[in-house]
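All the exercises in this workshop are built on plain-text protein records. A record pairs a protein's sequence with a compact description of its fold. Read left to right, the C-alpha cells trace the chain's path through space. Once this layout is familiar, the rest of the handout is easier to follow. Here is such a record, shown just as it appears in the course material:
>
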Amino acid sequence: MGFPELYQFLSELNKNNNKEWMDKHRKEYYAVRDFYISWLNKMNDKFAVIDNDYVDTTGKKAINRINNNLMFHPNKPIYKDHFSAGLDQKSKQGDFYMEFGLAETYMGGGYWHPESKVLRSIREAIDYNGEALKEILNKPSFKKMFGDLIVDKPLKTAPKGFSQEHSHIDLLRRKSFAVVHYLDRKSVYKLDFEEKVVEIYQELLPFRRYLNQAVSV
C-alpha cells in the first residue's frame, strides 16, 4: 500500500461519489486511510527531530475527514477528491498543511482569510516588524520553493488604524497570508519524497513561526 493506491482510490471515488459505493468499498478506504495515517506518523517523527518547537501531532489527529461539510456547502459532492492533513498543530495557529488530491497535490502553511482578530494580530506584527516578514518572503530559497504569497483580493485602501503611507502597506492590505508548494505525482512516487517533504517543512518554518508568534501574543 502506498501513494499510487491512494490516488487510485480517489480516482474511483471521484467516479462514484455516493454513499452506496463508499459502503461497498469501505475496506479499501480504511486500507488507504491507514497507510496515510502511518505515513503521517513517520513525518511527525521526522519533523520532531529537526524542529525543537514542533508540536507532536499523531496521524489520527492530523488527518482531515474525507466527507465534505454539506451543512455549509450543500452543493458539494459527499466526499472530497483528496486526502489532507495538518501536522505541527497547535490550537488556533497555522499548521503545516498537506493535500494529496486528483486535481492538485501541495504543501504549505499560513492563514487563509483568518478571522478579524487573527488578521489584526498579523497586521500589528507587520506594523511592528514587517521587515522580518519581507526578509523571509524575499529569501531566494523561499522564493524558489513557494514563489509569492497566494493571490488574494487585497483591501483597496489601508486597513483601519494604519496609514496609507505605511512602508509595508502592500502587506497590511492583504486579507490572507499563505504560501504553497505544488508537487506532481512523479515527485510523490520518488524514493526521496520524504526528504523533499522535510525540505519543504524546513523552508516554510520561519514564515509559519512569524505568523504564529503574531497571533499568540
Observations:
- Residues 111-217 form one domain.
- The radius of gyration is 19 Å.
